[in-house]
Amino acid sequence: MLIVTREGDRRCKLRPSPRAVVAVVHLREHLTFVKLAAGFQISEGTVHAYCPTTP
User: Fold this and answer.
1) Do 46 and 28 touch, CB atoms closer than 8 A?
2) Predicted TM-score of the model (pTM)
3) End-to-end Cα separation, the chain, in angstroms
């Protein structure tokens, strides 16, 4: 099993499975990026990169 730990030249903050959890929690619970970032101990920018935008 191949786990990607780099995207381009930048190091990824989360592995693929926690990325999916961040996105699912955001979609299900409608939490703000600030609360998600605090809960997962990552920056708001990282949360913004991993969460899908809703129209």
Assistant:
1) no
2) 0.70
3) 35
pLDDT for residue 49: 85
pLDDT band at residue 54 using 50, 70 and 90 as cut-offs? low
List, as one string, the DSSP characters of 1-55: -----EETTEEPSS-HHHHHHHHHHHHHH---HHHHHHHHT--HHHHHHHSPP--
Residue 51's closest CA among 6, 9, 11, 43?
43
* 42/52 Cα distance (integer angstroms): 17
